[in-house]
Amino acid sequence: MNDAIKATNKNIKMIMQKMVFTFKDWHEILPFTLHAYRTIIRTSIRATPYFLVYGMKVLIQLEAEISSLRVLIESKLKETDWVKMRYE
Question: Which of 38, 43, 60, 84 shows the greatest Cβ crowding within 10 Å of its Cβ?
Answer without folding.
Answer: 38
